[in-house]
Amino acid sequence: MPAQIVEVVEPHASSPGHERRIGYRGFAMVGLLNRLYGERWKAPGTEIVFFARDGYRSSTDSARFLAGTAWLAFGRADDKPFTVDNPSQHQRDIPLGPYYLIWDNLHDPVARAEGAYGWPYQVVRIDLAMPADYAAAQPRDAEGFGQVKKYCLTCHQVAGMGGEKWRGDLRQLSRPLSDGELKTWIIEPQKMRPATTMPPLDTRLPDVERNRIADAIIRYLRAAPATDITRP
Length: 232
Ligand code: HEC
Prior knowledge:
Layout: E1 4-9, E2 21-28, H1 29-37, E3 47-52, E4 57-61, E5 70-76, E6 83-86, E7 91-95, E8 100-103, H2 109-113, E9 123-129, H3 142-151, E10 157-158, E11 161-162, H4 170-174, H5 179-187, H6 189-192, H7 207-223
Antiparallel strand pairs: 1-2, 2-5, 3-4, 3-9, 5-8, 6-7, 10-11
Helix pairs in contact: 3-7, 5-7
This protein binds heme C.
Heme C binds near residues 170 and 185.
């Protein structure tokens, strides 16, 4: 497949009022998915899952890829080192390779509003997840599950689904914390453990919204049945 050059607002290195544009070299995701899976990846409800070397896992609804604004980058257009800083996780010069999922956020307003969500780096594997794969993790509370999937399952697991950055089922991990502690931990983890590498819930959102999301996450984690929790 031919590689292309795509210029993006690099969300890890940009903050409100301070935009950093970077050109990357990469392959169009639509072409890649067609080659890997034919038409299968377009089935409604399918998620494209990106596995990172360190256990981080990012999952995006396959419908988001139909517009053709996503690329799998493997280098920078200016041949500078393929690295980025991630201040929210106190990390500098993080290697992005072998592959880094990027979005043309100069032309895709949805991607622009998402910031760095859905931009996994150090991607070593791609897979499809079908709705049935999520069935065990998705009890009654669909809203809470959606938020957990977006904000927590990149690093943590529920019922075997999700990332492996921190071991253990999230429902189990949350149990020793009171609702108040869990909320503080989600919104301002560094307040409870200053050196933690767990990032605070999306700091670009207004506090009212962050509170609402945290409440939904806590409701979901508390409501999920304890019986199917696999111990770490
Ligand atoms: C970028 C990765 C990442 C994301 C995203 C993330 N966590 Fe964590 N989480 C961690 C790490 C790393 C630890 C270990 C924390 C430490 O000791 O510094 C942790 C620990 C925890 C713990 C155990 C706390 C304790 O007292 O030991 C809970 C509960 C938790 N996370 C809940 C959540 C919830 C809920 C979300 C979603 C809102 C979330 N995490 C999102 C990385 C992450």
